[in-house]
Design the sequence.
């Protein structure tokens, strides 16, 4: 599960930056990518 920690950290940093209005459109898409990555990983690990 160490990959989840990395994805979670990236997700938190992106959300913080989004709330401050500092994200580009491409970076906002990364938030959804991290959500999908964590969901897929959890689904595959049970």
Sequence:
């Amino acid at each position: 599960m160490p990959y989840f920690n990395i994805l979670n950290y990236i997700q938190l940093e992106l959300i913080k930056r989004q709330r401050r209005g500092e994200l580009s459109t491409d970076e906002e898409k990364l938030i959804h990518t991290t959500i999908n990555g964590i969901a897929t990983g959890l689904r595959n690990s049970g």
About this structure: The chain has one domain: 2-45. The chain has a mean pLDDT of 86.
